[in-house]
Design goal:
Helix content: 25-40%
Largest sheet: 3 strands, parallel
Number of strands: 5
Distance between the termini: 38 Å
Order of helices and strands: HHEHEHEHEE
Number of helices: 5
Oligomer: single chain
Length: about 170
């Protein structure tokens, strides 16, 4: 099983175009293959071929509303492999259906709640952790980054109501 990349780091260069691409992505419900998603992030998204820059740190934010159901025995291994290649992983669990131990083990050290992983009730609480992520990723609590809000007319499962993009400028 493989994770599918809908677009790559080099595909869009501003929040509006990225938000539009995300909103136009078809939600495919059913099983959760987190291991394949992490593998695709690690070996495809963070590759020079697809837009990774070797002079900029790599950060990944995994957002899940459940737990791995396909190849779940590889989820933590794939996260460890990505971290071993200097990808810092933050994980966010949404709803009470998450596997907290899996969420914690996917995240980078210190694997501490509120530092590298979070549990939130629903997607409306994502904004509560954005400031923390901006401070850690951008290296400062003050950033030129701001959330891009995209409203959808259909607030059904699988539809994103609010997107946050963190843009940091590294010298």
């Amino acid at each position: 099983d493989f994770g599918d990349n809908v677009f790559f780091l080099r595909s869009y260069f501003n929040a509006e175009d990225t938000a539009e691409a995300v909103m136009n992505t078809q939600y495919v419900g059913s099983n959760t293959n987190t291991a394949a998603g992490i593998r695709a992030m690690h070996y495809e998204q963070f590759s020079i071929e697809y837009g990774d820059r070797t002079d900029v740190p790599n950060y990944a934010i995994i957002v899940t509303d459940g737990e791995s159901t396909v190849n779940k025995e590889f989820t933590i291994h794939e996260a460890e492999a990505a971290r071993n290649d200097s990808i810092t992983i933050f994980s966010v669990g949404v709803t009470d259906s998450i596997n907290v131990e899996e969420l914690r083990q996917m995240s980078s050290p210190p694997q501490q709640k509120g530092v590298t992983y979070w549990e939130i009730e629903d997607f409306t609480f994502l904004g509560d952790i954005v400031e923390t992520l901006v401070a850690v990723i951008c290296g400062s609590p003050v950033s030129t980054s701001s959330p891009t809000t995209v409203q959808t007319s259909d607030p059904t499962p699988g539809k994103v109501s609010i997107l946050y993009f963190i843009f940091c400028f590294f010298d």
